[in-house]
Design a protein that fits this description.
The chain is elongated, with a radius of gyration of 30 Å. It folds into two domains: 93 residues, Alpha Horseshoe (Serine Threonine Protein Phosphatase 5, Tetratricopeptide repeat); 231 residues, Beta Barrel (Porin). It is built from ten helices and 14 strands. A hairpin with a 6-residue loop joins strand 10 and strand 11. The chain is α+β, with helices and mostly antiparallel strands. It has a 14-stranded antiparallel beta barrel with strand order 1-2-3-4-5-6-7-8-9-10-11-12-13-14.
């Protein structure tokens, strides 16, 4: 008899055991599971279902409601997200994450005025919030409110100087803040063997910020090979979108040999996720013939540092000449305050020594190492000093040393 009663009793009590087991699953458990499903598997429908179950157990669990609003946003259920965030707002929610999630929803859906209002309200309650400050800077940058964006990102960098995303954004914003800038540079180049006379190059530039990007006009005077020459240049950085912008440059000189007669260049830059940036483009120099160079670079902001690797490839009749340069910068304050180091091989068309590309010497071995220091005074006065040492094979099996020193000053107004 017992053999029959015990199994029947077990079957009768099984639903009760199951209900007790389910009762042990708390709102926190469901919330944790929803987050895991959302972040690990990107299964937003299941994460939404789990979040709703959690809210049935704990209707006033604000963190879960905010997370559910984010899930609606990521699933393109914009109306559902807005309805949920509106209800949270009516209940006087003051959580930092609420303002961040709600403002991000409106920003991603081009409601920048509403997004700005939300970030400002959130910062009233959480003035040290790095996430809200960064979002506010991004919103104003996207709307061409560069001064507000610059002030916001500088405020963020004071709180956390190692914020790589803010550092990257500060560099982009800096191109648009000052309407005008005048620059003066002096470049001294010393040769121990290759040439009898040292070189002197003076550059005067004017930069104008426009709604689509900055434009720079520059005049260079040079004394090379005991002869004088003048070059005129124009550069522009038109902005194509939140991610892409261009570099477009051109130059002319009637003093061929001291400068290239013509020079042109175009690069496409991309501000990539995780504080990366990339570039592809070309440079062209014309002396008596064209020299075409193709360039690519990748950069990365990490805490106070910026790392960059650049290459120039110059096709020839028999081979492809290659130039590589690695650069590391350590930022001490804003976008214009840093200490930098570089090392590489080959000659670059960006250098004032680019007229050496006019002969076969660019195919010979060149090693270079340099350092630079940039600092600002009251943000409107920018000073720079840099030095680069070159060891160049200017004839087969014959090397010479060069030292390149540049002093610079820019006044923004």
């Amino acid at each position: 008899m017992k053999k029959v009663i015990y199994p029947l009793l077990s079957l009768a009590l099984l639903p009760l055991f199951s209900m007790a087991q389910e009762a042990k699953i708390t709102a926190d458990d469901l919330f944790a599971k929803a987050r895991k499903v959302a972040f690990d598997s990107k299964d937003y429908p299941q994460a939404i279902q789990l979040s709703k179950q959690a809210l049935l157990q704990a209707p006033d669990y604000t963190d879960i409601s905010i997370f559910l609003g984010r899930l609606y946003t990521w699933s393109d259920k914009i109306d559902s997200a807005r309805t949920l965030f509106h209800e949270l707002d009516k209940s006087n929610t003051k959580d930092e994450d609420f303002f961040l999630a709600y403002a991000a929803l409106e920003y991603w859906n081009d409601q920048t005025e509403k997004a700005t209002q939300l970030t400002d309200r959130g910062l009233n309650y959480h003035p040290q919030s790095q996430d809200l400050l960064l979002l506010k800077a991004k919103i104003n940058y996207s709307e061409n409110h560069y001064e507000v964006a610059e002030n916001t990102v500088h405020q963020l960098l004071k709180i956390d100087p190692k914020n790589a995303e803010a550092r990257s954004l500060a560099k982009n914003i800096e191109e648009y803040t000052a309407k005008n800038a005048i620059g003066l540079t002096y470049n001294f180049v010393y040769f121990d063997k290759q040439f009898d006379h040292n070189w002197h190059i003076v550059g005067l530039s004017y930069k104008r910020a426009t709604s689509i990007g900055s434009v720079i006009f520059r005049t260079n005077y040079a004394n090379k090979f005991a002869a004088n020459g003048i070059q005129f240049e124009m550069e522009a950085y038109p902005r194509l979108s939140k991610i892409f912008y261009l570099y477009v440059g051109a130059g002319y000189s009637n003093n061929v040999g001291i400068f290239a007669k013509y020079r042109t260049g175009v690069s496409l830059y991309a501000n990539l996720p995780n504080s990366f940036e990339g570039e592809v483009g070309y440079r062209q120099l014309y002396f008596s013939d064209n020299i075409w160079m193709y360039t690519a670079s990748v950069g990365k902001y990490y805490e106070n540092f910026w790392f960059n690797l650049r290459t120039y490839l110059t096709p020839g009749e028999k081979n492809i000449s290659q130039s590589y340069t690695g650069t590391v910068r350590y930022y001490t304050k804003g976008a214009n305050d840093y200490l930098g180091f570089s090392a590489g091989t080959g000659l670059s068309p960006e250098e004032n020594r680019n007229n050496l590309l006019n002969n076969a010497s660019y195919k010979l071995k060149t090693f270079k190492v340099g350092a630079e220091y940039n600092f600002s005074v009251r943000q409107n006065n920018l000073f720079s000093i840099s030095g680069t040492y070159y060891n160049q094979e200017f004839r087969p099996k014959e090397k010479g040393n060069q030292l390149d020193v540049i002093l610079g000053y820019i006044r923004k107004f």
